Amino acid sequence: MENDGKLPAHIAIIMDGNGRWAKKRNMPRVFGHKEGAKSVRAIIEAAAELGIKYLTLYAFSTENWKRPEKEVKFLMGMLKESLKNELPTMMKNNVRLLTIGDIRRLPKKLIDKIGEVKKKTSKNTGLKLILALNYGSKDEITKAVRKIAAEAKSGRLPINLISEDTISKHLYTTGIPEPDLMIRTSGEMRISNFLLWQIAYAEIYVTPVLWPDFRKEELIAAIEEYKKRERRFGGV
Length: 236
Known about the structure:
The protein has 236 residues and is α/β, with parallel strands linked by helices. It is 44% helix and 14% strand.
């Protein structure tokens, strides 16, 4: 795929469809998650290869705690193992790990592994891989409002100086450019509490492909569709 200057700098993905992928094959949901992990690896490698600067993956939402305890425990364990196993590949591909969300609620061993991988990849200068973990956009915005209100109450932040930029700087994504392209797999037509502030002007691409079947070819198809669109940001 040629880079004609229209390559999205930041791609955000709602990785949906693991459960349905497994159900179609009369298999437990965990098999869908295992296959979905293979897609994660393939997409990270493809994004790095294509020259994408930022890739945000919606890995675990604040609402995902409502799932069966056994499934949540499996997901946490799988994430820890994936981080361990993928570290050499991340180093090889010059990928840096970042996270957004309140990771304090995650299991301690997972938190420690996240911290370790972040530290070891901190000097990598290629793709920034951002995992959204225990992330919910409404929760993120609520926390930002509380911080801004506290600063205003203390007199450190005059109310008349509160701007869109003020809000952006108090979100988990401060310092990260807003997504250019937001992809949702599995055909569901909703945002699911993902980056509500940040995707105000993102191009949205929904594909019926279930996440375990979403690989490099599907990512390229999404990017090619993005490149055809005219981004006006509210203008003419």
